[in-house]
């Protein structure tokens, strides 16, 4: 894959406490600079899809975090890739347990995958 994904979400968080974290994409292929991408975020266990609230910061809407909508356990975020692209997120888990998320980055034009990451979070009370 030609893009690396880094995130700052803690491995263990507290139930009903809002967490703010970043997800960054770092491209190792200069030809991808400025490419339009789709970021698919999926929930590992569909039964947990309603157990958290998540938001993404939208820079063109100053100071606004907007809800991330999951449909059938998947959210699609559209953005433009640069050599380093970072986004801020908020999440609050309303049920304790083990959560798994998959992040898949594809080129919008071709659908070609350029990065994939699994994120595991333990939520305790």
What does this 3D model show about the protein?
The chain is mainly β and 125 residues long. 0% of the residues lie in helices and 61% in strands. It contains no helices and 10 strands. Strands 1-3-8-5-6 form a 5-stranded antiparallel beta sheet, with no helix packed on it. The termini are far apart.
In spatial order, strands of the major sheet run 1-3-8-5-6
Order of helices and strands: EEEEEEEEEE
Beta content comes to: over 45%
Low-confidence stretches: none
Kindly list the characteristics that best describe this protein.
mainly beta; globular; single chain; 61% strand; 0% helix; five-stranded mixed beta sheet; five-stranded antiparallel beta sheet; 125 residues
Write a concise synopsis of the structure shown:
The protein is mostly beta strands and about 120 residues long.
Fold topology:
Layout lengths: L2 E5 L4 E3 L4 E9 L8 E8 L8 E7 L5 E4 L6 E7 L3 E10 L3 E11 L5 E12 L1
Parallel strand pairs: 2-10
Antiparallel strand pairs: 1-3, 3-8, 4-7, 4-9, 5-6, 5-8, 9-10
